[in-house]
Amino acid sequence: MSPGLKFIRLHFYPTSYSGIRKISEAEFSVTAGDYTLLNSFKPSVMATTLKSPYVTKDYFFNLKKPIVNITFAPSLEDSDSFAFVNGIEIYSMPLKLSDYGVNGTSSNATEILYRINVGVNSQNEPFWNGLDDQYLQGSINGTLIEAYDDHIDYNKSPWTLSEYGAPWDLYSKARTIGGGDEAANMGYNLTWTFSIDSGFSYIVRLHFCEIQLFVTEVNQRVFKVYINNKTVESSLDIVAMAGGPLVAMHKDYTITVPESKGGTKLWLALQPNVDSNPKLADVILNGIEIMKLSDTRNNLAAHVLQVENEDRSGSIPTSNIFLGMVICLVVGISAVSLIAYMLSHWFLLRYDVNVRKASSLICKSSEYSRKFPLEEIKAATNNFSEARLLGYGGFGKVYEGLLDDGITKVAVKRKNPESNQGLQEFKTEVELLSSFRHMNIVSLLGYCEEESELILVYDYMANGTLRDHLYQTQNPPLSWTRRLKICIGAARGLHYLHTGTEHSIIHRDIKSTNILLDQEWVAKVSDFGLSKVGKISGSNRSQISPGPKGTFGYLDPEYGRNRTLTRKSDVYSFGVVLFEVLCARPAVNPEPNEDDQTKVSLARWALHFYGSEKIDLLIEPYLRGKIKSECLVTFVEIAVRCLASRQMDRPSISDVLGKLEQALVLQENAVDDLNVQIKDA
Questions:
Q1: Residues ≥6 apart with Cβ < 8 Å to 377
Q2: Which SMART domains match (predicted)?
Q3: What are the φ/ψ torsions at residue 244 (nearest 5 degrees)?
Q4: Tens-place pLDDT, residues 132-150
């Protein structure tokens, strides 16, 4: 084999084979030359998780010698483990396809995680058989469109591309917001999320082609691009950048994801930009590729264990699976030029799986979290020093801790023996948070259960709780835009709980103290000790709870009366939080000798003033004159709908999220003369 850039695909088909012991015991690592591709990999677990009979893994790397050793090494932690592979494909890379994070002199290896066709699946293009539907987040899915002309220009300088790298079918279809309502479009983003490993750098390649008949000139469609809440394009105009319509182009963005416990999510969002008064308030995207780069140790294997329950599509012909048992291969084959259809299907499969043995009362999902010894926790908190105290919660005290020789700052929650929450809430918190992977859900780093202590260890949230910045605080008040973004982040986290997991999760204790803020002011939903898990497919499906649990002032009145718990119970609580954000008042505000009960309950107080058409009296004095009128109306109306007395009359969290996103756009894009002019009460 000649040195140079190579593509390698590994096939695993975990099924029963004659003469082989249980396939579920297979656990191994894979190296190719100097590169570690997989570590503690269990194909049977991966296939089950992906709901697929097979697993394929795709890589690019630079071969420096005419021979490469591909080694499959059984796990040393289990004497019954063994290694297997069903097929190996190696191809030489043509020059036009050699820009996937590696080149002729690069020491990086690359794993292809996703190749997504943002549009309609084509049976004629097996390269891009992964659709984007399952990765869409937020309140809208947008509109699928097709090119008005069959000719897609691949050779417009400087975007000269190869049809082998991204075929015509990819660029001839796209997703937009659509709908025809320009004012409404301003309130929405198109958002996708992808599971990735922490501790690596990634290339995110976005494919664009302006294919709509009525978009042929500059400044007809302009939009923003965000990756992980960072603006990477503030005014992207495809016609201007490509030099015209129907021109295939792509843009690459490199991001680095710091190492953390567990996996994480990559967020991609497109939002209309109307600053230059374009013809449309809309966005467009044709394709997405995400590629992981090897780290400084030539490693591509995930640093931590993670399993995702996400459906995958695609099929592989039986002839493409080569049955056989291989533990160590020395590959020396003639270089083969890469031809488009020789690569079979590009599958969206990733993540190695490492299943550790449980050693505690916590269920298997906690295996994704670290179990800390008590001595390490005591050292991290200076033996639970009051000087390290951050605050109090229903579970107990929360301390600042320092791990890894003082490098990693964490939050340590220690159970109070007198707390009403106990072992069951502790187990629920660990089990749920160990399985969550979302940027708006607090990250659980680990736990400790030793010497009657129940302790939870989280990522440190530098800006504390949302409540810390609203009232009864010495912190400076937050701007309205920042408050809106925090509400949107919390809504996204709640939307994930309700719709983004295998079983719907009802939080049951949404409140401003359970919304945490990291150093970048990203909102994180926290405290899952009271959460309920169930197979709830619709918002009207309910559970009968033996007794209402939650926090007074946030509790769904229908849940309190009838013990009927649904996702709409969380929506009610979130509505109270929205009014906390607007009014800077606590959910319950008993005052001495107060006879007017509408002033005791924030929810009742807010509904009273809304019904009296005195919205201006709701607003915190600091915010008066700073909120645009359309934004205020949109925000208050959705908050009021959340507080409907009947669950069936409340919006879904998806609807709430959409309205909050719309409110933010109205706030940021409204002209100055639309400011709310409010007289002090």
A1: 401, 412, 448, 453, 455, 457
A2: S_TKc (SM00220)
A3: 155, 175
A4: 777 887 667 788 888 877 7
Q: Choose between 49 and 410: higher pLDDT.
A: 410
Burial state string for 453-465 with b = 16 or more CB within 10 A and e = fewer than 16: ebbbbbbbbebbb
State the pTM of this model: 0.53
Topology given in CATH for the domain delimited by 113-293: Jelly Rolls (2.60.120)
Beta carbons within 10 angstroms of residue 423's beta carbon: 11
Residue ranges of the chain that CATH labels 1.10.510.10: 470-674
Hey, which bits of 42-162 come out as E strands? Answer: 55-63, 68-74, 87-92, 110-117, 130-131, 136-137, 143-146
- Omega before 651 cis (within 30°)? no
> What residue ranges of the chain are covered by domains with CATH 2.60.120.430?
113-293
Predicted pLDDT of residue 546? 53
Per CATH, the number for 470-674 is 1.10.510.10
- For residues 402 and 412, give the distance between their C-alpha atoms in angstroms, rounded to a whole number: 10
Confidence (pLDDT) at 246: 92
Computed over every residue of the chain, the mean pLDDT equals: 78
pLDDT for the residue numbered 316: 32
User: What mean pLDDT do residues 297-307 have?
Assistant: 68
Residue 522, CA distances (Å) to 444, 517, 654, 657 in order: 16, 5, 19, 15
For helices 629-642 and 480-499, angle between their N-to-C axes, nearest 10 degrees? 40
User: Where are the extended beta strands (E) located within 75-211?
Assistant: 87-92, 110-117, 130-131, 136-137, 143-146, 173-176, 190-196, 200-208
Backbone angles phi, psi at 187, to 5 degrees: -95, 5
To the nearest 10°, report the CA torsion of 64, 257, 284, 118: 60
Residues 268, 272, 274: CA angle, nearest 5 degrees: 150
Which residue is catalytic, options 197, 237, 509, 527? 509
Q: Tell me, what's the pLDDT at 91?
A: 82
| Among candidate residues 236, 220, 246, the one with its CA nearest the CA of residue 270 | 236
Query: What's the average model confidence in pLDDT over 181-193?
Result: 74
CA distance 419 to 421: 5
Structurally, at CATH architecture level, domain 365-459 sits in 2-Layer Sandwich (3.30)
All CATH 3.30.200.20 domain ranges in the chain, comma separated: 365-459
Give percent of the chain with pLDDT exceeding 70: 75
Whole-angstrom Cα distance, residue 676 to residue 82? 69
Listing DSSP states for 5-42 in one string gives: EEEEEEEE--S--TT---GGGB-EEEEETTEEEEEEE-
Annotated active-site residue 509? The verdict is yes
At 309-365, the pLDDT tens digits run 333 333 333 333 333 333 334 443 333 333 322 333 222 222 222 222 223 334 333
Could you write out the DSSP letters of every residue in 513-539?
GGEEE-TT--EEE---TT-EEE---ST
pLDDT of residue 636: 96
Confidence bin at 439 (pLDDT 50/70/90): confident
Say if residue 413 carries a ligand binding annotation: yes
- Using DSSP's 3-state secondary structure scheme, residue 505 falls into strand
